[in-house]
Every structure is written in C-alpha cells, then in structure tokens.
Amino acid sequence: METLSALLIGVFAACGTWLLLRHGLFRILLGLALLAQAANLLVFTAAGLGRGDTAIIAGDAAALPDGHPDPLAQALVLTAIVISFGALAFCLVLLKMTRARTGTSGIDALAKTES
Amino acid sequence: MLFFIVHALYKGALFMVAGALEKGTGTREISQLRGLMHRFPALGIAAVAAAFSMSGLPPFIGFISKELLYEVKLATPTVGITLLISGIAANAANVVVALKVGLLPFFGDLRGDGPKNLKPSKIGFWIGPVVLGIGSLVLGLFPNAILGKPLAAVVAQIAAEDVSIKLKLWHGLNLVLLLSVVTVLAGACLFLMRRRLSRYANALRDATRCNGVALFRSGIASFLNGAALITRSIQSGRLHHHLAVIFSVAVAGLVAAWWGSGYQLRLPSRGQPRADVILTTLLLITAAVALVACRRRMTAVLILGCIGFGVAAFFALHGAPDLAITQILVETLTLLLFALALYGLPAMREERRAGVSRAMAATLSVGVGLGFTLLTLKAFDIQVAEAVSREIAARSLPEAHGRNVVNVILVDFRALDTLGEITVLLIAALGVSAMLGRGRSSLSRERRNGSPVLSASARYTAPAMLVFSIYLLLRGHNDPGGGFIGGLVAAMAAVLTHLAHPSAPLRVFALGAPSLMVAGLSTAALSGLPGLITGKGYLAALWGAEISLPAVGKVKFGTPLLFDIGVYLVVAGVVLLLYKSMESRRIPEPVSPPHPPNL
User: Which residue of A has its CA nearest to B354?
Assistant: First the structure.
C-alpha cells in the first residue's frame, strides 16, 4: 500500500512540475495545487499509513490501540491543507489582477511588460 | 556573544565621541584636533575608556574578550596558529587605531591652527559615550556577576546543553596573558612610529601607484561584476527558466545524495492490499495525467476538484476523518473561487508553446516525481528517534482531556504552531483584499435576486449549517471536528446565503470578515495568557468545569476550547474575505497605462 501511495505522490509531483514548466500562468496555478497535494500526501504517507483506524480514543479506552495512525502527521497535514488553500487563493487573485491589467496570462508576454 | 557587547560598547562610544567632537569643533580632521581634554573632559574620559577597551587593556571588558579569543585559538591545533598570528596583528592594529582616535584629540597642546570656535557640548552629547565607556569598565571589573547568566542562557540555546560560563578578568600568568602583553606592546610601538610608518606607506604608494583604497574599490567592483554575471546566466527574468533552474538543482542534489549514500531501495511490505485504496489511487493517478493533458480551463478546474475529493477519500480510507472533512470543505471552496475567477473573464488562448523545451520539462518532471517517490519510500526506513506522536497519544486523554488526538495537538500541544498558522492565513487574506481593494459585489449588480431554488434552499440550510458548525467546533476535542472544520462550515453557510441573496451582507453571527478575523486572532492569542500568568507558559492549557450539553455530549471548558473558538472565527473570516475579494469584479486602475495591443 505504501509503495502504491509513493507512486501516486511521484505522479502528482511529476504532473505538477510539468504544468509549472510548460504553460501559462493559469496552468502554473494548477501545477502549484498539484504539488501542494503531493507534499501533503508525502507527509501523510511518510508517517505510515493506517489500516482504517482513526486517531480518536474510543469511548471506553484510555489510550489509542497499538498500530494507530500518527496523529501528529495528521495535525501537520490538516494545517497544511488550510494554508495551501490560502496560498492558492492568493495566487488566484494575482492571476486575476495580472489578466485584468495586462490582458494576458502568458508568462513571456508578461516579461515584456513594465508594470 | 560577548564580542557583540564589547564591540557595541566601544564602537558606540567612539562614534558618539566623534559626532560630539564634530558638533563642538566643526571638524573631523583628526590632525587638527589636539588637547581637547580641558574643553571636553567627559568626552575625553569616555573616549579613553573606549579606546582602552578596544585595545584590550585591563581592566576593561575588551581585555576579557581578547583573552578568550586567544585562548580559543591556542586550543585549536591546526588552523589555530595562523589565526593566532593574524589575530595578534589585527589586535595590534586595533591598538593603534584606538590610541589614535581615543587619545590624540584630547592630549597634547592645543594647536594654534586648530579649530577656533569651540562650543561646549551639551549633556545630551556626552552622556551617551560616558555611559558606554563606564559600561566597558564596569563589565570588565565584574564580568561574571553581570554577564554570566545571560551569556550562559544564550550559549545553552546554541549548544543545546547547559553551559556554565566563567568570565574572569585575571587568569593568572599564562601564555594568553603573554600574548596580550605582546599585542599591546606591538600596538604601542606602531603607534609611536606612526609618522615614520605613514611616510613609508606614502612612499610605497607613490612607487607602486597602487594604494589600499583603490585596491579595495577595484576588488569590490570586480566582485559585483562577477555576481552580476552569475545572476544573468541563472536568472534570465523568465519565470520558466527560473523554475527550471530550481528544479534542476533539486534533482541534481537528489542524484548526488543518492550516489553518495549507497542506499538500497527497499519496498515497504506492510499491510494487505485493499481494493478501495487501490481504486482511489488509480483514479487519482488518472486524474493527474488528465489534468496535464486537458486543454480547457473549466475542465481543468473540475479535474483539480476531482483530485481534491479523491485525496479526501484517500485520507478517509487511512483513518484520518479530520483531514478528509477539511479537504472536502477546502476543495469545495477552491472550486468556488476558481469558478469566480474564471467567471466573466474573456476566454483567452493560453500560450501553448510557452516554457522550457519539451525534453527539458519531461526530464525535470520525471526527476522530481522520482524524487518524491524515493523520498516517501526512504521515509519508511528512517527511524531517528522514538516517535513523539506515541507520547502525545499517551498523554492526550489524561492531560488534555481530549479523545481526538489530532485536535488536541492543534489546540493544546502545538497551539503555538496553530497560532502562527492562522496568522499566516490572515495575512494571505489581507494580501488578497489589499490587491483587489474595495469593490461592489458583481453578483448584486447583475442580478438582484438569485435563483429561486438556491434562495429557497439557502433559507433553510444556511442557519442549519451555522448551528452545525458550532456543533462541530464543540465536539472537535473528542470527535472529528474542531475550529478549522467548524470555521469552514460557518463561512460556507454565509457564502451560500450570499450566493442566493447577493444583496445581503456577507456575515457570520452578524460579524463581517474583518471583525471575525480580529476577534478570532485576539481570542486565540489571549487564550494563552492565563497559562502565562499562572507560570505554566504561554498557551499552556488551563481546564475548568465539564458541562454536559444536549446533542454535543460532555464538553470540558478550558483555554484550549477558547483557542479553538479563535481558530474558528479566524478561518471563517478569512474564507469570507477571500470569497468577497474574488467575487467583487471591480479592478483597481492600472498603475501604468494600458499596454499596446502587439503584446
């Protein structure tokens, strides 16, 4: 399972990189989003994948059972999801402003502009 | 650390003396300043003290600092001797400079051709250097009593262990003291011979036509040229090239690390294959490839949403309900924001052939992808120390009274991280808002009334969502939920209302986005104060009574709950602000004139 997950992360990262390197601003945004997903999944997977148990202590138990998923990695990823949402929204506004002011989202056309 | 203090004391004093002298005499030419001790006694004393400290004469603090340096150099076997010699030379030069600036202006005869209109300096001019000069002396006399503890605290932070520091003025007769004596003597000799040396230097300059200043300037200039050359070759000003450089370096570093480590790849073989996980993963891989191949923007956005929901399913299948819920909510909002961003923008052809060459991009993409895969696989092999999460999981219920360990980490054990994070989120939202400025709602202009279906459903669902968000917030400590999830749901209730009734104000609990953010961040930040006051440390949890609420169950009140409420408010406010900014269509006037159409 972990190997498959590692493969998935690799595919996400590769596709994200391709989008970043090959296309205009809009697709760069998509690439960033994909890379963010890859990074989140990397942290999540690296802590070990659970078998479906949650990191919630059952009503009659005092502690998590053995083999529980890593709650710390989950906490890290939870905040990372929200942060990458904020960053993506920021970039989206940047894109919108750029389009509105210059009429293009082509990177190389932007390089020629002054503002 | 000690050297910073020493330097601050003597440099500060000497600079202030120089300034005061310039004010008082109207000149900075050191050759014209002589015998000023009678006119400016306080400045003179301060300058002499600073000069002695700079020269490393006892009993000033500079002496201790210099002794320590020599000691370290003596203790270092190989490079120590080179350092020691250069250190002695530099310190001797220091002595010369110190004596020249500290002593010369104040002693000797008042020259006839010196500055005439001497103004007595005011207290403001001499109090500063005097304090610093006396500081050098006092610290030198009682170094351990004053500096011992603060220095030890700083060093302990760096060395990550407890360090006791013994600063002493008198170390006894030893090699270090001998070196100090040599240094001071050499400096004094050089000082006395300064006129002759200066003549030699002039002669040398005339003979070789190169002097120190010109050499220094040309050195700096060629350094800058070299830097510019490197910058031009790596940073072409084109984004794709910058990105390519960054990715190339990352991949190259990875390859180098792989080469050097001799790491054997081992596939982790844990757990049984699960059909649901395999299906989700294959779906996600397909979607990622489809995203790359897709040409239409709206389709691409939808595929991105599909990936987000797939990832949420992935989290859910691996026992992370909090993550799955957060991911679903965030993905919904992302879709909404993307749709708003695309809405109304003219369909414009993207540059198809932008970016670096196909082969280059393919190589780098595969490299980065492989890197991520290997990193993940490698991560299973590494176990540097006992996982901290084991400890956290064990302490969660007895110490933090929470069954949902993820939430306990967020609002209690690692609350400071979360506080920093909601601040970052808030700053991102403010940045968005600042870029777009205040605008009128576009939806409200175009259609006063939303769709009847949406309107009718929003009337009933939005209040229910708001109540549900509070429920999620309160139960978060024991079950999936918490401030992040609750805040997202609350914001979505408001967004839903606004989509249905575009003229209605965008509010949660009658609070607009800025008030929500301010209230939330203050609540979160203030919830740390009780811990600070009781001496347990900032954001340390304090618990109160446990109350049984209908539907929610038992809720234990305490500062972490307060903190989670702060998170809830900030997240709701940030999402509202982002939505409002994206939804408003007004674009501020360009700062520069519109660009010619040939772009």
Answer: A23
> What whole-number distance in Å separates Cα of residue B50 and Cα of residue B8?
10
pLDDT at B440 over 70: no
What residue spans define the domains of chain B? Answer: 2-192, 402-589
B213-256 pLDDT, tens digit per residue, is: 778 888 888 888 888 888 877 776 677 888 888 888 988 888 88
Residues in A touching B237 (Cβ below 8 Å): 111
- Whose CA is closest to A98, among A87, A109, A88? A109
The predicted pLDDT at position B488 comes to 92
Report CB contact under 8 Å: B368, A56.
no
Which positions in chain A touch B314 (Cβ < 8 Å)? 41
| Chain B residues within an 8 Å CB radius of A77 | 315, 320, 323
B390 pLDDT higher than 80: no
**pLDDT of B49 above 70:** yes
pLDDT tens string B168-192? 666 666 777 787 788 888 888 887 7
Which of A4, A7, A9, A18 would you mutate first to test chain B, the one with the most B CBs within 10 A? A18
Query: Between chains, do B590 and A19 touch, taking CB under 8 Å as contact?
Result: no
Cβ–Cβ of A48/B380 closer than 8 Å? yes
Q: How far is B352 from chain A (nearest CA, A)?
A: 7
**Interface touch A9/B376, C-beta < 8 Å:** yes
Contact between B573 and B520 under an 8 Å Cβ cutoff? The reply is: yes
Residue B567 tokens read as 């998170």
Any domain includes A13:
yes
> Which residues of chain A lie closer than 8 angstroms to B374, CB-CB?
6
User: Can you give the residue range of the structural domain that contains A6?
Assistant: 2-51+67-111
Selected for mutation to probe chain A from B241, B247, B405 (highest A CB count within 10 Å) is B405
Instruction: Encode pLDDT of B444-455 as tens digits.
Output: 455 555 678 888
Indicate yes or no: CB of B326 within 8 angstroms of CB of A82: yes
Q: What are phi and psi of B382, to 5 degrees?
A: -90, 130
Q: Using an 8 Å CB-CB cutoff, list chain A residues near B397.
A: 57, 62-63
Of B281, B396, B414, the CB nearest to A8: B281
* HSE value, Cβ hemisphere, 13 Å, CA-based, for B177: 9
**Spatial distance between the Cα atoms of B51 and B35, rounded to a whole number of angstroms:** 16
Structure confidence by residue, pLDDT tens digits, B532-584: 888 777 877 778 777 777 777 777 788 888 899 999 999 999 999 888 887 77
Q: What share of chain A is helix, strand, coil (3-state, %, to 5)?
A: 70, 0, 30
Work out how many domains chain A is built from and give that number. Answer: 1
Residue B171 CA: distances (Å) to CA of B56, B98, B137, B166, B360: 14, 24, 17, 11, 64
Low-confidence ranges of chain A (pLDDT < 70): 50-52, 66-67, 103-115
Q: CATH number of the domain that A22 lies in?
A: 1.10.287.3510
* pLDDT tier, B290 (very low <50, low <70, confident <90, very high otherwise): very high
